[in-house]
Write a structure and sequence with these properties.
By secondary structure, this protein is of the alpha/beta class. It has a domain of about 280 residues: FAD/NAD(P)-binding domain (3-Layer(bba) Sandwich), CATH 3.50.50.60. The protein is built from 16 helices and 23 strands. The strands form 7 sheets. Strands 1, 2, 3, 9, 10, 11, 12 and 23 form an 8-stranded mixed sheet that branches. Helix 4 packs across helix 16 and helix 13 crosses helix 15. The protein is globular. It starts with a helix and ends with a helix. The N terminus is likely disordered.
Length: about 625
């Protein structure tokens, strides 16, 4: 069975359009009257769960409700974008676009975010960067839920989640030729999965990639053989979500839907929105009703879920389904004119995303490197790059997607003043000052304030750990870099549009609302500036252009950071956090919504706080562990 699934996935990965299967439904009249499991969202985690449930329970029916279509959705760095324009350019039909409210602490800038609106979700359109978190991220999750969650059989520390990272992907080691050409390193013991979700190293690197890597090593940054096994402080090679034979994107729509779409108990309803969940008998038990809206004719209908409703609609849309169901903070629901069913203040709270400033330089003695991204401005080279991408196997610049090399550095390994920053954060957790940095409506919710204090305490210890990364700096080419803040302290919100509950939610990032975030940004930038003092960068006469050598004082660096800040690196999370209810949590370790029976959340909205990684691999791992939890609970 596995061999046939892998073979089928290989064939499908080479296609630019997905075929339509009998199990794809476009009208509720084509559905059963009821399903055992109804899953809201056909993205990375939702399709993972659907695949595993339909396999484990062939006599139970599974329905996935997806806002988008079964279609090819152009990825963030696919043709016709040149160089790296995809992340901010206009997107196609397979993508949601969101724009946050202005952020007063960052020049009133707004965060631009896109997410997948297609079968496969964001795994079908993202930058394909497929790194894993540090083991200390997941140990911090467990600490944030301790002691309340200690007795749960479901453990979310590194030991508890690592087997699901391994299960979630089939990794292919680099060929001898690519190792010799590019210097790739890996350790197969960090993997071991056997599933049609694939990762591998790309068959292309820009010629100047070696410059940054050499400079980082000269800075004393440890060169890691493998960063997917939990130990991530250092210089890492990062695999992509890429099938190794075709060198094309591997995503959940292919691996967890297309390759198993022959199962008669697994249906997908496309072009529909999950509106809300209802308990028809007035209690939080028994069968549930799910209200749906057709995006084609705006007709509403209800379906029965006999076993569970599983929310996998993402950090922005999962909270809106709960809100429309009457589940959330009483004050938020009152403002929206929705009757309260369950007072759960953590819904839509705790929003986080990776952000960071740019840093740039120029070369006064440039090397003669080829090929370079500037070659993409040559119409002949660009045409060849597009043609190479469309071949089987694909080759050339577009197979690299975003990047596959980065440093991950802890705060103690960046600055001797790390204890000062950590002490500031610890003080916030103990002296009551933290509430001043939270959204105003948190003041009416003691559980949210208590949960934030718990998070600050845990993150302070995390940041003091010399093995726990505080920043990521990915690099592919050129004379600039983005400096990620991996664990922001500021918290935003996702709320319903009170004028149109079915519209896209109101997203308020509140970036920089906790001033300690800027302390971290400054420490990161000051550390990275040392790169220009390395022999490699001196060899090419590197000169800083942003912020420039004249900008030295911390106050001036803060202003530069605000000016050059990217507010979102497309990793929103944490808006239905796995925390105790009395700490503003929305789900427990079994992923059930607090206070409800038979409703679970299985996407990245359950993260208590951000991880030291892009969120795609974590979404797969959460989906795998969620499926295992659900299967075990129903086998009992």
């Amino acid at each position: 069975m596995l061999a046939s699934r892998l073979t089928l996935a290989l064939l499908l990965a080479a296609l630019t359009k997905a075929s339509h299967h009998a199990t794809v439904k476009r009208h509720t009249s084509d559905l059963h009257e009821s399903y055992d499991f109804i899953i809201a969202g056909g993205g990375t985690a939702g399709l993972t769960v659907a695949d595993r449930l339909s396999e484990a329970f062939p006599k139970k029916t599974i329905l996935v409700v997806e806002y988008g279509e079964v279609e090819y959705a152009r990825g963030g760095f696919d043709p016709p974008d040149i160089i790296f324009g995809g992340a901010s350019s206009a997107r196609g039909p397979g993508v949601f676009t969101f724009q946050s409210l202005p952020n007063p602490e960052v020049r009133n800038k707004t965060a631009f975010v896109f997410a997948g609106k297609t079968v496969g979700g964001s795994s079908a359109v993202n930058g394909m960067y497929f790194d894993r978190p540090s083991r200390f991220d997941h140990d911090a999750w467990a600490e944030a839920g301790s002691p309340e969650f200690d007795t749960s059989e479901h453990k979310w520390n590194w030991e508890g989640i690592f087997p699901y990272f391994k299960k979630s992907v089939t990794f292919t080691e680099p060929s001898i030729g690519s190792v010799q050409k590019y210097g790739y390193t890996s350790d197969i013991s960090a993997y071991g999965g056997s599933t049609p979700i694939f990762s591998s190293f790309p068959p292309f690197l820009w010629a100047d990639n070696v410059i940054a890597r050499n400079a980082w090593k000269e800075m004393g940054i440890r060169e890691a053989k493998e960063c997917a096994g939990g130990d991530k402080e250092g210089l890492c090679w990062i695999p992509l979500s890429q099938y190794p034979v075709t060198a094309r994107r591997s995503h959940a729509g292919l691996g967890h839907y297309e390759s198993v779409s022959f199962r008669p108990n697994y249906h997908i309803l496309v072009k529909h929105q999950v509106v809300k969940i209802m308990y028809p008998d007035g209690t939080f038990s028994g069968s549930l009703l799910v209200e749906l809206r057709s995006l084609v004719d705006d007709q509403f209908s209800n379906l029965t879920a006999k076993a569970e409703v599983i929310l996998a609609a993402g950090a922005f849309h999962t909270p809106t389904i709960l809100y429309r169901s009457g589940i959330g903070a009483a004050s938020v629901l009152k403002d929206a004119g929705i009757p309260l069913v369950l007072d759960l203040p953590g819904v839509g709270a705790n929003l986080q995303d990776h952000s960071g400033p740019s840093w740039s330089w120029s070369y006064t003695k440039p090397g003669n490197f080829s090929p370079m991204p500037s070659d993409m401005l040559n119409t002949i080279f660009a045409a060849k790059a597009t043609a190479a991408f469309n071949e089987t196997p694909a080759s050339g610049p577009y197979t690299l997607s975003m990047a596959n090399s980065a440093i991950y550095v802890s705060l103690p390994n960046m600055t001797a003043d790390y204890t000062h920053i950590v002490d500031i954060i610890r003080a916030m957790a103990t002296n009551g000052s933290s509430s001043a940095y939270l959204p105003t409506d948190y003041n009416a919710e003691p559980s949210l304030i208590a949960g934030y204090k718990r998070q600050l305490s845990v993150l302070a210890a995390f940041l003091a750990n010399p093995e726990a990364p505080s920043t990521e700096v990915p690099f592919a080419t050129g004379t600039s870099a983005r400096i990620f803040l991996l664990h922001p302290l500021s918290r935003g919100t996702v709320r319903l549009d009170v004028n149109d509950h079915l519209a896209q939610p109101i997203v308020d990032y509140r970036l920089g609302s906790n001033p300690a975030d800027f302390d971290l940004h400054v420490a990161h930038l000051k550390f990275l500036r040392r790169m220009l003092d390395t022999p490699t960068m001196r060899l090419y006469g590197a000169v800083e252009t942003g912020p420039g050598a004249h900008v030295q004082h911390d106050a001036a660096l803060r202003e530069y950071i605000k000016d050059s800040m990217t507010l979102s690196f497309m990793h929103p999370c944490c808006t239905a956090a796995m925390l105790p209810r009395e700490l503003g949590g929305v789900v427990g370790p079994d992923l059930r919504v607090h206070g409800l029976e038979r409703v679970r959340i299985v996407d990245v909205s359950v993260l208590p706080f951000l991880v030291s990684a892009h969120t795609s691999s974590t979404a797969y791992a959460v989906g795998e562990k969620a499926a295992d939890i659900i299967i075990r609970s129903w086998l009992k």
